[in-house]
């Protein structure tokens, strides 16, 4: 009786699995993934981040229980993360990089993933990348080499962040992109940069440069939306760009033909990406439509600035409920409440997408259950624990105020599914139709919450101009 009654939960799981697969957060993440699959000017893969002299462009990233292409087998309760990256030494001199220094951390904090010292060289050899991780890998000045790293993580590990020294790159976009490990693209170095003298800082996101040959050019910093005119923090944004740029910069082409670019300045341990540093300091915000090569790295810097209420996030957003405006000659800025939602919408979607995928995978397993299997209650309780972890992870995220309800409803939906799995397991143990009925009610309540979260986020995303 109870094992046939549980079929109603199967139906509920199938319905919400479809809803999760189409959740707007996954759609926004996929839009960023499409950009990630395209090479930047010069062919460099994305996403990209920089730590000191090292520039790391992620070519492929895979998170799975098993990765057959390189012979990594599944282990109960654990997953593998494999990363293929093109690493460039941007220093003027030769340098060495210890591959294990590329660490994997869960977003929001926690224990790091375990670097796999045996699986890494085996996988590298299979993929034809540099397999030597026993010693530091030597790079000539300006040299780009392809490296492979492998980590083992618990299945409940949060959204992975690839870190080096004091900075990190969220891997949600890279993990969303299809990765064919049998047909990796060729190694391509970063785009060339051009040295230029700073002629004038026009505002917090525009700078006039004197280029070799006597040419001048006004460059808008790619991915940067800074306040201008009489807007809150406009003066401070201009002052911060002036201080960061100094007298000499290096100009890197932007991601399109719009004349935007990336500006680098000299730093203590290598060049500093001025675009990102402005956002990290809270002097500007990330342009909502930015899908450039550094977008994920810059979005992580913005989330950190928001948490600490740096710059405009403290002086304007927290104090007055307003946000940075786009430069006056750019497209009209959105109203303050919408701009606040936009500031974190893409980052929220990218961080949420892996959790939606995991929830969908678990729910779809219902159709494969053997209801005569005496170990089924234990399996259901394991999935209950997974959904509880997903709920906790959602509630631990830093979420813009405009998305808070969507995030909380999604977390509550995950928690309700955890309760549904627990009740179903208890119902099977006790052969209790009443407990199964309660499980069905919990599953339906979970679906209502997740559907509402989808609608709420969809509305906010449309206000931000995203196509959902």
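Q: What amino acid sequence fits the structure above?
A:
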């Amino acid at each position: 009786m109870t094992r046939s009654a549980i079929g109603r939960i199967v139906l509920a799981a199938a319905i919400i699995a479809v809803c999760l697969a189409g959740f707007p957060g996954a759609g926004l993440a996929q839009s960023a993934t499409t950009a990630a699959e395209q090479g930047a000017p010069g062919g460099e893969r994305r996403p990209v981040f920089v730590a000191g002299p090292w520039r790391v462009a992620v070519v492929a990233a895979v998170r799975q229980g098993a990765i057959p292409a390189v012979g990594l087998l599944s282990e109960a309760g654990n997953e593998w993360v494999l990363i293929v990256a093109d690493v460039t030494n941007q220093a003027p001199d030769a340098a060495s990089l210890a591959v294990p220094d590329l660490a994997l951390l869960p977003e929001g904090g926690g224990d790091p993933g375990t670097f796999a010292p045996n699986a890494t060289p085996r996988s590298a050899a299979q993929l034809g990348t540099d397999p030597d991780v026993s010693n530091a890998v030597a790079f000539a000045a300006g040299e780009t080499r392809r490296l492979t790293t492998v980590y083992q993580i618990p299945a409940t590990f949060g959204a992975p962040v690839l870190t080096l020294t004091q900075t990190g790159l969220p891997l949600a976009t890279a993990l969303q992109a299809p990765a064919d490990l049998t047909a990796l693209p060729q190694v391509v170095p970063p785009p060339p940069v051009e040295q230029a003298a700073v002629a004038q800082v026009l505002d917090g996101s525009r700078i006039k440069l004197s280029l070799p040959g006597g040419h001048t050019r006004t460059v808008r910093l790619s991915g940067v939306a800074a306040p201008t005119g009489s807007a809150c923090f406009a003066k401070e944004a201009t002052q911060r760009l002036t201080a960061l740029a100094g007298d000499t910069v290096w100009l890197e082409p932007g991601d399109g033909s719009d004349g935007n670019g990336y500006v680098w300045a000299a730093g203590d341990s290598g060049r500093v990406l001025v675009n990102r540093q402005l956002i990290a300091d809270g002097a500007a915000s990330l342009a909502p439509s930015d899908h450039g090569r550094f977008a994920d790295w810059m979005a992580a810097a913005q989330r950190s600035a928001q948490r600490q209420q740096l710059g405009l996030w403290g002086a304007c957003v927290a104090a007055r409920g307003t946000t940075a405006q786009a430069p006056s000659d750019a497209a009209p800025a959105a109203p303050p409440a919408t701009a606040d939602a936009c500031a974190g919408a893409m980052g929220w979607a990218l961080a949420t997408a892996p959790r939606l995928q995991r929830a969908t995978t678990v729910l779809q397993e219902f159709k494969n259950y053997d209801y005569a299997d005496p170990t089924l209650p234990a399996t259901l309780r394991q999935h209950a624990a997974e959904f509880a972890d997903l709920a906790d992870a959602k509630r631990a995220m830093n979420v813009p105020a405009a998305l808070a309800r969507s995030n909380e409803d999604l977390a509550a939906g995950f928690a309700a599914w955890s309760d549904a799995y627990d009740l179903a397991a208890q119902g099977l143990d006790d052969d209790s139709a009443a407990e199964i009925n309660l499980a069905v009610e919990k599953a339906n309540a979970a679906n209502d919450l997740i559907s509402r979260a989808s609608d709420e986020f969809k509305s906010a995303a449309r206000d931000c101009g995203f196509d959902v």
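Q: And what stands out in the fold?
A: The chain has three domains: 2-27+339-463, 43-176, 194-335.
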